[in-house]
Every structure is written in C-alpha cells, then in structure tokens.
Amino acid sequence: MQTERQRLEKQHSQLQIVKYSSNNNLTMSQHMEEKEEEITKSALITFRAKEEEIEKKKLEVRERVRAQLGRVEEETKRLAEIREELEGLVDPMRKEVAVVRKRIDAVNKDLKPLGQSCQKKEKEYKEALEVFNEKNKEKAQLITKLMELVGESERLRMKKLEELSKNIDSLH
To answer: Which residues are CB-contacts of 164 (< 8 A; sequence separation ≥ 6)?
Structure first.
C-alpha cells in the first residue's frame, strides 16, 4: 500500500515537472492535466480497492476471533463444571487415611533416633570387631612364635639329650 502511494506521488511529481517545463505550450499542458487527472482517478480507484480488501480481511479476522472466543467460553464453562464435580467428590475413607498418615508420621519420628542409634552401634561394633581381629592376628603371630620357640627348644633339648646319651654310652 505504501509503495502504491509512493508510485502515485512519483507520477504526480513527474507530471508537475512536465507541467512547469511545458508552460509555454497550452495544448500540451491541457493534455498533461487530462493525463494527470486520469492517473489520479486510477490511483484513487486502486487505493479504494485496496482499502476495501483490507476492511474485508479485517472483518474476516474479527469473525474468526469471535468464533474462537465462543469456543473458549464453552470450554471454560465445561472446565468449571468439571472442577465443581471434582471439588464435590468426597473421599469416604478420608478420616481413616488421616489417622493412618498421622501414625506413619509418629512412627517416622520414632524411627529417626533409632536409626541414628543403630548407625552409632554399628560403627562401634565395626571398631570393636577391627580391634578384635587385630588382637586375634597378634595372638596367631605369638602362637606361631611360641611354636617356633618350643620347636627350637625341643630340638636343642633333644640334641642335648643325645649328647648326654652318647656321653653315657661312651662311659660304658
């Protein structure tokens, strides 16, 4: 639409230039005026046609918007009815559910310190078990050492007994 106006203005200005430059020739001037009038009428007709087309499209869009609004209003009413039905539903077990939930909350409160106590005792147990295992390992090492010492002692005693036995045999 803007380009159409620009084109018309350009044509008008060109006509004006031609009009002023040919001021000397009256017939040419009249001819130009007729042509200018013809162009102006054509431009006005085109402009009016465009305006009518725009108005027609605006009306179509308005009508579509109205139709959409009508559908939206219907859907809103349906949703409101559904919401009312949902709010109207009463849970027949509501009281029992509330009692059970309160008991669950109470048990959860009792479980928390018990869980912490279990974790603490489990930690103490693991530490005691670790100390126990270390002492058991130390005991096993000491028993091994004792066995070695007893074995060595027996070997030395046997050796000594054999020597004594030889000494006794040599005396005979």
So the answer is: none
The one-character DSSP state at 93 is T
Q: Which residues contact 12 (CB under 8 A, 6 or more apart)?
A: 36, 39, 40
Where are the domains positioned within the chain?
1-89
Centre a 10 Å sphere on the Cβ of residue 111 and count the other Cβ atoms it contains.
11
17 confidence band (pLDDT: 50, 70, 90): low
**What radius of gyration, in Å, describes the C-alpha atoms of the chain?**
58
Q: What pLDDT was estimated at residue 100?
A: 93
Give the C-alpha distances (Å, rounded to integers) separating 43 from 16, 28, 38, 57: 16, 22, 9, 21
Residue 1 pLDDT greater than 60, yes or no: no
* CA dihedral of 141, 143, 147, 149, whole degrees rounded to 10: 70
65-121 residue pLDDT tens: 998 988 999 999 999 988 888 776 766 777 888 899 999 999 999 999 999 999 999
Q: Where are the alpha helices (H) located in the chain, listed in sequence order? A: 2-21, 26-88, 94-171
